[in-house]
C-alpha cells in the first residue's frame, strides 16, 4: 500500500507534532531503554503499525534486546524469557493500548504499581501514550518502511 502522506511531507506540514512527540519521549529516560523498546514494539504490534514495528524492532536490536524476547513478544505471557517487571510493563501496555473495558486492568494495575516507582509509572504510561500517538499517525497515514 502506498502512503496516504509520506513521513517527510507529514513532518514538513506539521513539524511541531513529530518534534513534540520526540521531545516528550526524552522525558521517559528514567526507564531502561530496552524495556521502553519492548513496550513500543508491543503497542505497535497491537495497533498493526508496520512502520513503528519495523523502527522499534531495529532500535531494540541495536540496544541488544535478546532475539528470543523479540521472537516471543507477541506471546509474552507464555514465554519465560520476560522478567516480572517486563511482564508488568507489557500488561500495562496492552491495557492502555486496548483501553475500552480491558478485562485485565485491575491485575495490570496491581502488577505495574508493584514493579514501578511513581516516577517510573508516570514515564511508562507516557511512553505508551506516545507510541500510541505515533502508531495512529504512522499507521493512519501508512508511512512506508
Q: Estimate the global geometry from the Cα principal axes.
A: globular
Q: Tell me the strand percentage band.
A: under 5%
Mean pLDDT across residues:
95
- Number of beta strands: 0
**Largest sheet composition:** none
Runs with pLDDT <50, length 5+? none
Rounded Rg: 15 Å
Return the string of H and E elements.
HHHHHHHH
Structural class: mainly alpha
Number of helices: 8
Q: What percentage of residues falls in helices of 4 or more residues?
A: 55-70%
From the N-terminal CA to the C-terminal CA, the straight-line distance is 11 Å
Give an overview in words:
Helix content is 68%, strand content 0%. It is mainly α.
Question: Quick recap of the structure?
Answer:
With 145 residues, the chain is mainly alpha-helical. It has helices at 7-13, 16-26, 33-46, 50-62, 67-72, 84-97, 105-115, 118-140.
Write the layout of secondary structure elements.
Elements: H1 7-13, H2 16-26, H3 33-46, H4 50-62, H5 67-72, H6 84-97, H7 105-115, H8 118-140
Helix pairs in contact: 3-4, 3-6, 3-8, 6-7, 6-8
